[in-house]
Design goal:
This protein is 39% helix and 4% strand. With 143 residues, it is mainly α. It is globular and about 45 Å long. The protein starts with 12 loop residues before the first helix and ends with a helix. 22% of the residues are buried.
């Protein structure tokens, strides 16, 4: 049986600056690096890893590197694991993004989620359903 452990990166600079992240390439903060080390120690205690796969974005690479250092398992980096492309708002202050690209009535796709997740973006933004499909295709390629 194949088990897949999915983890998210630690706190990034975008988190504390209140910026939209997406494909904007922010590094981990000191707290994010500490979170990554603690996560790595927990994974090492609880799991035996055969492989580590990571996005090529800095925050994910730093998190994966902490896990690799602790578990002694090498990391394979893949662009297909990058965060969903949120278009022109990547790296933009959330407040500015909401002013420039206000939410349509009812939010994106007619459902109200948090405003930060529902920003109207440009044509370069990936559709909401494309990222989960890409991730599932990546996982299927592994098994």
């Amino acid at each position: 049986m194949v088990e897949i452990l999915v983890v998210r990166h630690g706190q990034s600079e975008a988190d504390i600056m209140n910026r939209c992240e997406g494909r904007a390439d922010f590094a981990l903060t000191d707290l994010g690096q500490q979170q990554a080390r603690l996560l790595a120690e927990w994974i090492h205690r609880e799991y035996t890893l055969d492989a580590i796969f990571s996005s090529t974005l800095n925050r994910a690479k730093q998190t994966a590197a902490a896990i690799a250092e602790t578990t002694k398992v090498p990391v394979t980096y893949d662009d297909d694991l990058m965060e969903q492309n949120n278009g022109v708002i990547a790296g933009m202050l959330r407040e500015e993004a909401l002013l420039k690209y206000p939410l349509p009535d009812g939010g994106r796709n007619g459902t109200m989620q948090s405003k930060a997740e529902n920003l109207k973006c440009s044509s370069e933004q990936e559709p909401n359903n494309s990222y989960p499909n890409c991730l599932l295709q990546f996982i299927a390629s592994l098994i």
